[in-house]
């Protein structure tokens, strides 16, 4: 087995082994559109806390009221996004945005 195959298998297994239970915080990296709002509403209904990092000029301000924490970060500020999620003790992150028609 090559190291590449082993690396892919390990990464996949680690990802599948983690389970998020209600009451824990899920991270939401929010872009434009209605989908991030729908995700936040659904997660709250299922008992999760939602820590949202919104992309500047894209994310809806409506998310501020739906999420337990909300921070706007520039699209090129990956370090800022990571720090925001770490402060909220997020272990799992969902990226949600509108997908334009092509």
Tell me the structural class: alpha/beta
Helix content: 25-40%
Give the helices and strands as they follow along the chain: HEHEHEHE
Distance between the termini: 40 Å
CATH architecture title: 3-Layer(aba) Sandwich
Beta-sheet strand percentage? 15-25%
Low-confidence runs of at least 5 consecutive residues:
1-17
Describe the protein's architecture and organization.
There is one protein chain. This protein is α/β, with parallel strands linked by helices and 102 residues long. The protein has one domain: Rossmann fold. It contains four helices and four strands, in the order H-E-H-E-H-E-H-E. The chain has helices spanning 3-17, 35-45, 63-66, 78-87, and strands spanning 25-30, 49-55, 69-73, 92-96. The protein has a four-stranded parallel β-sheet, with helices on both faces. Strand 1, helix 2 and strand 2 (49-55) form a beta-alpha-beta unit.
List keywords for this structure.
102 residues, disordered N terminus, globular, single chain, 4-stranded parallel sheet, Rossmann fold, alpha/beta
